[in-house]
Structure formats: structure tokens, C-alpha cells
């Protein structure tokens, strides 16, 4: 399989796990790292995702009904099924991404049976670029940063995180 095929197969596996969780939950929160380029796994990625999950759980005040860990061609992710208010969970997810040191490395998606909740739907600010602070989607569309620069910054962040006991 090519790298692209591995990523696409990994995304399909994530979507199948989300659908399984949504059969018994009102929404799913998926926590994954934003890893530019290939490979999609980096040293410390699981610890960063778990840190992010712990911070998210504190902020949202919910207990997951079920948790799935997936490691595949799309990278490592945690998927948690919840009952509760998905919009409030998305706000907690954005707050985690914006304020937690390791949150900048993570992508917290909130998915309902109707689809993924976006920042825009809730009137929240767009995600900022990891390197320059501009709007992340605009930087990606314009190709403003080299993949190698983004990976280097992400690796430096992950290496600088203190040990996490729940790894």
C-alpha cells in the first residue's frame, strides 16, 4: 500500500469506530495529533493525545461511555463516546486546543450522528497556525510552511513535554 492508501484506510477505520460508538452515544470526541507529512506516528504522540484527553475531560465534566484507541496509517487517536451536549463539548475541545500546551499539537473533533461540529457553527474563532499564528486553513491552502518545518516544531513540542504517568 502507498502512504496515501494507508492514511485513507486509517481514516476509514476511524469512521467505522465512530459509527460504532454513535450507536450507543449522542456524540464522539476524537483526539488525534496534527502530524504533517509522513509517517503519521511520532515519538510521544500517544502521551500527548492522552494528556489532551485528560484536559478535555476536566473541562467538559463528562465521563465517557466508551473509549477506543486506534493506531494505524492515519496515526494514533482516542475516540470517546458520550451522552450530553455536543456543543458544550466542542467548546471544551476548542478551549483545550487553545490553552493547553499539548493542545496545540492535537485536533479534538466532536462528531454527532448529523456530522462533525465546527468552530464556525458555534461562532468560535478559527484554529491558529502552529508556526505563525495565522489562520491554520489559510496557511495550509497557501502552502506557507514547509512540511519539514511543521514536523520539526511538532517534534520539539512533544520532546519538551514532561513525562506523563498515564502513558
Give the helix/strand layout.
Layout: H1 3-22, E1 27-33, H2 45-60, E2 66-72, E3 75-82, H3 86-99, E4 106-112, E5 115-117, H4 136-142, H5 147-160
Antiparallel strand pairs: 1-3, 1-4, 2-3, 4-5
Helix pairs in contact: 2-3
Walk me through the structure.
Helix 2 (45-60) packs across helix 3 (86-99). The chain is 43% helix and 19% strand. The chain has 167 residues and is of the alpha+beta class.
Largest sheet: 5 strands, antiparallel
Q: Strand order of the main beta sheet, please?
A: 2-3-1-4-5
Query: How much strand?
Result: 15-25%
Class by alpha and beta content: alpha+beta
Number of helical segments? Answer: 5
Rg calc: 15 Å
What is the total tally of β strands?
A: 5
Overall, the morphology is globular
Distance between the termini: 30 Å
Helix content: 40-55%
What is the H/E order?
A: HEHEEHEEHH
Low-confidence stretches: none
Mean pLDDT: 91
Quick structural gist:
The chain is an alpha+beta fold. The protein has helices at 3-22, 45-60, 86-99, 136-142, 147-160, and strands at 27-33, 66-72, 75-82, 106-112, 115-117.
Keywords:
five-stranded antiparallel β-sheet, 5 helices, single chain, 5 strands, alpha+beta, 167 residues
